[in-house]
Write a structure and sequence with these properties.
The chain has seven helices and 15 strands. The protein is α/β, with parallel strands linked by helices. The protein folds into two domains: 251 residues, Vaccinia Virus protein VP39 (Rossmann fold, 3-Layer(aba) Sandwich); 29 residues, no CATH class. Strand 1 and strand 2 form a beta hairpin. Helix 5 packs across helix 6. It is globular.
Length: 290
Amino acid sequence: MEQMELTLAREQRANSNTVREPATGKNIECAGKLMTGDCVGRLRELADASAQLVVTSPPYDQLREYNGYSFPFEDIAQELYRVTADGGVVVWVVGDRIRGGRSLTSFRQALTFQQIGFSAHDIMIYQKKNTPFMRSNAYTNAYEFMFVLSKGKPATFNPLKVPTARHGMELLTHNKLPDGINKKKLGELKKEKTRTNIWSYAVGLGGTTRDRIAFQHPAVFPEKLAEDHILSWSKPGDLVLDPMCGSGTTGKMALLHGRDFIGIDISAEYIEIARQRLEMHGLKVEVEYD
């Protein structure tokens, strides 16, 4: 398949979407595609270095029944490295089984990604504001990892900002040496600062999403999480890929922000949920069944 087809060339698509890119105010035409089938097989149809960003959450540690899906992680990792563009980023949202001791699957996966050539650009935390259950013999588990893996130096980084508690000119600590003496000089505290790498989101209806149809899928991550990564690591017109797209969260946020999107899922049922969900928001997508 030719590169233009794999990146969903907009000029050849009659049903592409036109949305307003919030950051620029310009009209951005973007295209979406959903594909059923085995993740590895479908990834092998994509051209080398065709995706600028991958945002996905795998069905880790068999914690959910997933419509007959098997999870050949090593093959998926190799294909993701191949299809990721130079300077591209993979955001891998994953946790661990915690019963009987932590499985540490997340760390083993991160090390595998590193061994095949990705740089561990960041290890971020997805903190759940409202946790679903308590634990009797340990602290309540309230997070998952977001491994930010880059193929070389990230080509795009648009840091998300938060207001500072105070700003203006102040005496700031400067050049503190091993003697421990604080030396200060006049400097400026900015009105905004870059967010930390711990991101907190409410989960459940109204937090994860207001789209009730999404919860027909057994594991939905917050659409704001997907949105924040899409805004951080890609730009309008880039191709965003989710090889295990489930209910279409990544696709919804990618298309709303003027990115092209390809979503893959082994379940035709989940692809149909994703299609309906996207079309509820006026986002038309092509569906290709295996």
